[in-house]
Amino acid sequence: MGNENLHEILKDITLLKQKLDNKEVKKLKLDLVERIINRMGILTKECDECTEALNDLTIIITRIKDKHNELDKQDYKDYQSLLTQLTTHLEKKHKLIREGHYTNLYMSLGIALGLPFGAALDNIAIGIPIGLSIGLAIGSSLDADAKKKGLII
Q1: Cβ neighbours of residue 152 closer than 8 Å, sequence gap 6 or more
Q2: Domain segments of the chain: what residues?
Q3: What is the pTM of this model?
């Protein structure tokens, strides 16, 4: 897929952002789609699946743009399914992560580890926030590191 096609689809997404209300923009996750397109534009040189997926995404974005505000449930279903496929592909094959991935992971781990700590102190209300804080600190630092390395979708 050439650079002009990438610019065209990014232009379509910008038009959709202007045309649709904020609720629809969030529902369609257009910010995520922009990041996916930019990332896949780089990866298409080495990955045929990325090229195929980018073509599929172009078709669906064009369909959404042409239908204006008349999207039905099947359109949303197809769109969400493709987004899930794309993010899964980027995560598994290219070892990329979503924004906040480590924060979410380590926050829940911190709570899980803080719970027995609080139970050992006979005060669960102390253990949970301590575990949450530690997990949040670790997760945030890992997310910042991943962002520096360019591993965020």
Answers
A1: 35, 96, 97, 98, 99, 143, 146
A2: 3-93, 101-149
A3: 0.76
